[in-house]
Amino acid sequence: MTDYLKLAEEMESPRRFNHSVNVAKTAVELAEKYGADVEKAYLCGILHDIMKDRSRNEQLQVIHSADIVMSHVEIANPKLWHSIAGYAYLKTKLGITDLDTLNAVRYHTTARADMSVLEKVIYIADYISEERDYNGVDEMRKAAQISLEQAMFIALQFTISDLSNKKMVISPYSLDAYNQLNVDYYMKGKII
Ligand SMILES: [Fe+2]
Ligand SMILES: [Fe+2]
Questions:
Q1: Cα 179 to ligand 2 centroid, rounded to whole Å
Q2: Does the pLDDT value for residue 188 go beyond 60?
Q3: CA 126 / ligand 2 centre spacing (Å)
Q4: Ligand 1 center to residue 83 CA distance, Å?
Q5: Closest to 49 measured CA to CA, from 77, 14, 92
Q6: How far is the CA of 20 from the centre of ligand 2 (A)?
Q7: In sequence order, what DSSP letters do the residues of 39-99 get, joined into one string?
Q8: Minimum-distance ligand to the CA of 26?
Q9: Domains of the chain
Q10: pLDDT tens across 88-141, in order?
Q11: Which residues have CB less than 5 Å away from ligand 1 (the ion)?
């Protein structure tokens, strides 16, 4: 069996590897709290940024080798490439077939509507891992203790307005996720 921890250490910068280990730890805690598969959560945490420190060329090569055609929005935002490349790498190079694991890596940057618990766990763990210290991280950590959806809503609200302020493209996946949370939770009063 592949030693995924060692693989991540080899493919990532020390800073990124530390982040990945922290995301895995937080993902395990969230998986235990919200009922996702703990082993998958750990694995996704370790592997979610596996392609992030690779060159853009390498990321595109892996994406193409998995026969993935990127949308215009994805092509326009190279920051999205590492998630898609990560998905492709897990699938084609590591032979991981579990769809939930693959999707959790693929959508960890944009989110999407109808995410599984595991996908939400990885998305949020990436925001609140131990080394994160951005303005508002405490609010995110508190929200994650209340519900994954509440934390996701805050994260998406921030991300979408930030991208818009910077005149960057916004993934339809993020908008779908935001709208679904808005309708399902915010409008029904479940999110304060
Ligand atoms: Fe990432
Ligand atoms: Fe990350």
A1: 23
A2: yes
A3: 5
A4: 6
A5: 14
A6: 6
A7: HHHHHHHHHTTTTTTS-HHHHHHHHHHTTPPPPHHHHH-GGGHHHHHHHHIIIIIS----H
A8: 2
A9: 4-186 (1.10.3210.10)
A10: 999 999 999 999 999 999 999 999 999 999 999 999 999 999 999 999 999 999
A11: 49
> Ligand 1 center to residue 37 CA distance, Å?
20
- φ/ψ (deg, to 5) at 71: -75, 170
C-alpha distances (whole Å) from 60 to each of 80, 81, 83, 91, 144 are: 11, 7, 11, 15, 33
Q: Look up tokens 């280990």; give the residue.
A: 21
**Ligand 2 centroid distance, CA of 19 (Å):** 7
Residue entry with tokens 């891992």: 129
Ligand nearest to the CA of 128: 2
3-state class (DSSP) for residue 166: coil
Q: Among 161, 169, 174, which Cα is nearest to 77's?
A: 169
What is the 5 CA–ligand 2 centroid distance (Å)? 15
